[in-house]
Each structure stands twice: as C-alpha cells, then as structure tokens.
Amino acid sequence: MQDDLAIAVENLLIKSQVFFVHRRA
C-alpha cells in the first residue's frame, strides 16, 4: 500500500517537472 502511494507521488512529481520544463521552454 505504501509502495503504491510512493509510486503515485513519484509519478506526479515527474509529470509536474515535465509540465514546468515544457512551459518554461
């Protein structure tokens, strides 16, 4: 259960980083 949450948070952070990088570019 905790592993699933960690994976979800990690994926969210990655998506956020990609989103910000594309907006900044």
What would your notes on this structure say?
The chain is mostly helical. The chain has one domain. The chain is built from 1 helix and no strands. The mean pLDDT is 89.
Low-confidence stretches: none
State the end-to-end CA separation. Answer: 36 Å
Backbone shape: rod-shaped
Radius of gyration: 11 Å
Order of helices and strands: H
Summed over residues and divided by their number, the pLDDT gives a mean of 89
Helix fraction by DSSP (H/I, runs of at least 4): over 70%
State which percent range the strand residues make up: under 5%
Number of helices: 1
Q: Which structural class matches the secondary elements?
A: mainly alpha
Keywords:
25 residues; mainly alpha
Quick synopsis:
This protein has 25 residues and is mostly helical.
Show the helix and strand layout.
Blueprint: H1 2-24
